[in-house]
Amino acid sequence: MKTLIIISHPDIAGSHSQQFLLEGITRQKNITVHHLETLYPDGKINIEEERLLVEQHQRIIFQFPLYWYSSPAMLKHWQDEVLEEDLFDRWKGKDFGLVVLAGIHEREFRAGGRERVTMDELMRPFQTVANKFGWHYLPVLSIHQFNYQTEEERKALLVRYQQLLTLPNESLNERTDWFVRHLRKLSEEKTDSVQKQRLAHLVDLLLANQEEIEDLKTTLDELD
Amino acid sequence: MKTLIIISHPDIAGSHSQQFLLEGITRQKNITVHHLETLYPDGKINIEEERLLVEQHQRIIFQFPLYWYSSPAMLKHWQDEVLEEDLFDRWKGKDFGLVVLAGIHEREFRAGGRERVTMDELMRPFQTVANKFGWHYLPVLSIHQFNYQTEEERKALLVRYQQLLTLPNESLNERTDWFVRHLRKLSEEKTDSVQKQRLAHLVDLLLANQEEIEDLKTTLDELD
To answer: How far is A144 from A151, CA to CA, in rounded Å?
Structure first.
């Protein structure tokens, strides 16, 4: 599966959070990073190239800082220029996700919080675009006050980010394979033998579960 | 009360609905019409002038066609450039309204409709901006499939538009005065004597009600 990350940020080089996320996914050949302000400093979008790019990817991610409770204007401009009703049929069935970076604490985005609305509510226009195109809308990854996050929180964030970008959302088998692959990679990076053992154990568990589920499926098929 | 209508539309001269609305409010000295694409064809907004304009008006209206379930990018650009946290205190207490023109039928904007969401939900980012600034958020005036509307529907639309632009939302007295003023103006324009009589009767009723409410208030004050 190929993933396209469309980023809108007026100063991506100066953004710690954006750089942190991008460093976490370097050298992954199935991920294309596409920063609009770098490509189009004058705001003139190459519509045909953008459409080709969307066509070549199965999962489309919009990544942006929250500006006045939505994306920066540049990403809206991209939508206004690139999206078109004629493409509904051709583009249906894609996955669509949002990575939203906010300077305000998560607890404010709820009834009774200072912002009064949830991030899911604020992102409704994007969800409705996904609905219109027949895209599978992935849960929003909203990152709050990145600069105050601990090392541990940031590690956990990278895992969630990686999942949003590449974890298949369809079959359980594919999802298990994804986890096995990532746990094995993690195990290779570790030097501590206890940690290595724990990760190997996790992989064994996942594979055993996968086998068990396969057996159950065969049984169900025979009952059918 | 002075009202500022900030319009974003890439081709306002070619839009029947926009022209219809604007023709309905010509020569009203307390309404300022401000079309962004005419003023800033290159997208470079004069931030200081825009802030001054907002400052000079009590009611701010955003008027735009629905593009991908939000405003055109230009209006978002205006927000990104002009709005600023430092202005929260200075600008608080304004009225804020939206006039949204949509090509899709109203019945699709609800649970179970094709769009699945209501217009109120889609406009949540604007409502949250209003909340942040301490503005009074007026009910959204959403206009659906203007080109299919009958003459009668369009007349009713102009009344709702005029109310959104100029009807005070605070005191009942001010609201009554507004209606009396508008009914009298309407009566002057009519030639049919039956219609004139009916309108005069309505004005009498409103004024009588107003007096009665005043009396009740006095009674309440005496009981206090």
So the answer is: 15
Contact yes or no for B59/B2 (Cβ under 8 A): yes
In percent, how much of chain A has pLDDT > 70?
100
DSSP assignment of A164-214 equals: HHH--SS-HHHHHHHHHHHHHHHHHH---HHHHHHHHHHHHHHHHHHHHHH
- Contact between A73 and B68 using a beta-carbon 8 Å cutoff: no
Q: How many CB pairs under 8 A join A and B?
A: 80
Average pLDDT for chain B:
94
The hierarchical CATH code for the domain B3-169 is: 3.40.50.360
Domain ranges of chain B: 3-169, 171-224
CB atoms B80 and A69 under 8 Å: no
CB contact under 8 A, A69 and B124: yes
B contact test, residue of A128, A129, A131 with most B CBs within 10 A? A128
| Tens-place pLDDT, residues B31-81 | 999 999 999 999 999 999 999 999 999 999 999 999 999 999 999 999 999
**Residue A224 — pLDDT band, cuts 50, 70, 90?**
low
pLDDT at position A49, please? 98
What are the backbone dihedrals phi and psi of residue B45, each rounded to the nearest 5 degrees, phi first?
-85, 135
Q: Which of A27-41, A120-134, B59-73, B170-184 has the lowest mean pLDDT?
A: B170-184
Q: What was the pLDDT predicted at B46? A: 98
CB atoms within 10 A of CB B38: 12
On whether the CB atoms of residues A99 and A61 are closer than 8 A, the answer is yes
Selected for mutation to probe chain B from A62, A68, A91, A129 (highest B CB count within 10 Å) is A68
Contact yes or no for B76 and A72 at CB 8 A: yes
Q: In the prediction, which pLDDT does B187 show?
A: 87
Judging contacts by C-beta atoms under 8 Å, the chain B residues touching residue A125 are 68-70, 122, 125
Q: Which amino acid is at B201?
A: H
Is there a contact between A168 and A1 (Cβ–Cβ < 8 Å)?
Answer: yes
Taking the C-alpha atoms of residue A30 and residue A33, their distance in angstroms, rounded to an integer, is 10
CB < 8 Å to A77, chain B: 73, 77
Q: Strand A31-35 vs strand A3-7: parallel, antiparallel, or unpaired?
A: parallel
CA distances from A144 to A72, A109, A170, B78, B92 (A): 17, 10, 28, 25, 26
